[in-house]
Amino acid sequence: MLSRRRLIAAAPLALAGCATRFYENDAPAAPPRLQVQNPGLKPPSGALDIDAGALMPGDILLSAANGTTSLGIRLLTLSAVSHASLYVGDSQVAEAVGEGIRRRRMQQFLDEESTVVAFRHPGVRPDHVQKMQDFVAETVGQKYNYVGVLLQAPFSIERRLCELPLTPSLVRDFCLQGVGAIQLGLGRSDRFFCSQFVLEAYRRAGLPLTTADPRLLSPADLLHMREGDVPSVRSNQTLNYVGHLKYERLLDSASRS
Questions:
Q1: Closest CA to 165 of 5, 2, 15
Q2: Domain ranges of the chain
Q3: Where does the source fall among the domains of life (predicted)?
């Protein structure tokens, strides 16, 4: 049973609606510790300041800007990121934006974002990359999933009930997918918003990041799949931190944590 002190310490987290979990220390005799989702994107101690030459095809780019749209997404998802895109090689980024699925030059992408961080799936092979590139070529020009984004707004609020502290991961998964099926059941799966596009690219490559419906996940969910964080949904593989390509202080307090 949890001690009274531990329950009291965890209570404020319930108000924030952050996913948590207990994990064991390396020392067998040490008591379990509470691990909480980290919403921040500030470069950690010893962070890598990289340029596009350090990227590999298949790397996931999570980013944020200082515009009102980015700020709204970050406030709604309690996160420091508002956009997800895929590095496809040859200094090009593939992404789903309001105009539809597109490719653009890395430098243009960096010029428009305030903060950009790269993460890497350690199992990506050349055959996976080829399938991702084929998926991008197939979808470039397709329309954006506006319906899915609109449905994400109420879902982002209601899902907090599933992410209360101390909720077992299996229960959280079941709850999230149940609420999502109700909220997002009318959303189309043949059009994509940004995080949905990245998740679908990995699924098509044979490396699904999660078994959850991609329509349920936001850029914040991809951020929490990084090593050392607490994923909102069960992830098949933690993502390795590659480095910061750009970092600026953002307007919201979550990004400064």
A1: 15
A2: 38-256
A3: Bacteria
